[in-house]
Fold:
Amino acid sequence: MNLKQREDEVRAALEPAFRARLLARGQARSMIWRDGEIPADAPQFATNLSYDLVSYGVALIDHAIYIHTRNGDTNLARRAFLQAGEAIESVVAKGIPDDPQRGFLRIMSAAAFHLGQSSARAYSMLFRSLDNSNLSRLERGLALLILRSLDQLESEIAEWRRRGIGSDEFLFNLLEDQILQGDDDENELPYEDSVLIALDVALCDQFYSGLSSFLLALQVGEESLVTLALREMRTGLKVSSNNNLVPQWWGFRLANHLIDDLWQASLHQLIPTVLPEGDSTTWHDQRSLFIGDYIPN
Structure:
């Protein structure tokens, strides 16, 4: 499917009447939902409505990323991100509290809002539920990036490094413990499951490496560090794809675009490095001092 076909599909999907007003039905249900329950006297909704809304939102995100990365219709991509965020939000905002997918879907919705240039709505999806959601370390790192809680993110990465999690020795011991745990065959994990557990830890370490490079780039203003961060994310994306690890794949994919988005919006990019006229040396020093006041140390 080429760029024009993708854009045509998105335009059709953004129409209010698309799939029997799918988004409107989801938002109407969300208005009366209470912890995933509909009042007894309320109109009934299709049992597969949540599945349809999530599928719709994820497909829009996928199309919007494709359009954005291939320099397509920027406004169309932004609208697609926003509508994707709204579709997924309608499922999780007042949905089933103990749904194991709820935390992941909150991140998907928040990332879509952020990429759609609605940082306030992205923030509202995560800030109250961050510590109460069923999130992996990788997903939590992505959430902190969306919230721009960079100090906390840096602290958690430092703790990860201090404990040596993700090192070859740690992964070897983890594999050994997982494979050999228990005194009988019933308690032993299959080899494939043990490898996936270790791979998840290794991917989280890869993710943290990319985030560390990006955080340093924000502090010192070196674009080469952003390039390194994006390379780390693409490597993790490839490994996740090769092993069919869907949540990790989405985490790396979204982080790749969020990092680029945040860097383009950073003071390092927005404040010119050279003045058209005047003392450039003085301007450079003042620019560095100004940015330093707003960047976490």
Notes: The two ends are 45 Å apart (CA to CA). The first helix runs from residue 3 to 13. The chain is about 70% helix and 0% strand. The chain has a mean pLDDT of 89.
